[in-house]
Amino acid sequence: MKAAENGEDIKVIAGxxxxxxxxxxxxxxxxxxIEDLKGKTIGxxxxxxxxxxxxxxxxxxGIDIKKxxxxxxxxxxxxxxxxxxxxxxxxxxxxxxxxxxxEDGFGKVIDYKSDEIVSLNTAIIATEENIKxxxxxxxxxxxxxxxxxxxxxxxxxxxxxxxxEFGIDKKYLEKSIDNIELxxxxxxxxxxxxxxxxxxxxxxxxxxxxxxxxxMFDLSMLENSMMKR
Length: 229
Hints:
Blueprint: H1 2-5, E1 11-19, E2 21-26, E3 41-44, H2 49-60, E4 70-73, H3 76-84, E5 90-94, H4 97-103, E6 107-112, E7 120-126, H5 128-133, H6 135-154, H7 156-164, H8 170-176, E8 180-182, H9 188-203, H10 220-227
Parallel strand pairs: 3-4, 3-5
Antiparallel strand pairs: 1-7, 1-8, 2-5, 2-6
Helix pairs in contact: 3-4, 4-8, 6-7, 6-10
């Protein structure tokens, strides 16, 4: 979104996953709702969709995101350490860190945020120049993306084993995949959700101008690959 606002040459060409977000609090914090976050310290990853979702929900509850709560910027792994150590009261993050907090017993989810504002969470982005100059390579990439995603959607075991190669314990992955939907598809409804997301980003000052959202998407290669299934 920010790249598009800055006029950079980017196109969203396929989806990767939907959902996977949650608001996690310290298990013994006494926090049971969004309203209970007033006066609390919340870990967040800069410019993440989780932050956008939570910031707007706080505003809807009448909580000033600059005065009534303290947002503490950190990477995703630090959220786990900071929450377990009691240095933050909550974090708005994504899997598998949500499931790590739950599985290790120091965190609890008070709000799964997968379906608010926009369900699309991760996507494949390419430059328009690359799409035009390397069409065969891009088509090959898309065909492999669709094929591999379809396979991992059908095989929970392969999905966990492949993800475990990145160093995450399988016990966390077993729990986290129920909160993540793999998908290559980007529907017209999702594009409308992205338009709403842009409005929310502008509302909290993350962007100054809303770019042409529909111009951000080039789904022609995805549609051709999906037809081959």
